[in-house]
Amino acid sequence: MEDCQIIDLYWNRSEAAITETSRKFGGFCRSIAMHILDNAEDAEECINDAFLAAWNTIPPQRPKKLSAFLGRITRNIALDRYDYNTAQKRNRQFHCILDELEECLAAGLDTEAEYESQQIAQVIRLFLEGCNTENRNIFLRRYFYADSIEEIAKRFAYSESKIKSLLFRMRKQLKKVLEKEGILL
Questions:
Q1: pLDDT in tens, 20-54
Q2: Taking a C-beta distance cutoff of 8 angstroms, is the pair 150, 79 a contact?
Q3: 28-66 burial string, b = 16+ CB within 10 Å, else e?
Q4: Does the pTM exceed 0.85?
């Protein structure tokens, strides 16, 4: 079923929307949640919560790209669950991904920092727009979808060392851009 047809099911408040969403995007959402949480039960809960959020959000929203819409919802819910889980224990794989970006991003948000986080998001978006498509996709696979280095290497048919090197260079470039914009000192 096409994305626009699934969205129409949501707009018509048809329960088939959830079934079709699960059929078409369940694996995609599961992959995102599992990379962040590394726990099948938590991932399934996140997927269910994401589908419920989609049900509650469509309408009034009509997403242009349903996969990106669901991926973002799933990722945000999984990150919230990750925060909850790491209050007592750590997911080493995802914590490692966060450590890679640590030197580029400030830790923790307060009320004042919310504005700054929007500025950072804008700078990162512009930075990624300036990258070639393949590098941008590799960066997103690692830091948005939380794919492992091995998975990225297979997806792009590169060696793991090339992926590590490319990500390292991109992080250094991003850090320079953030410093130039006065976000990092």
A1: 999 999 999 999 999 999 899 999 999 999 999 99
A2: no
A3: ebbbbbbbbbbbeebbbbbbebbbebbeeebeeeebeeb
A4: no
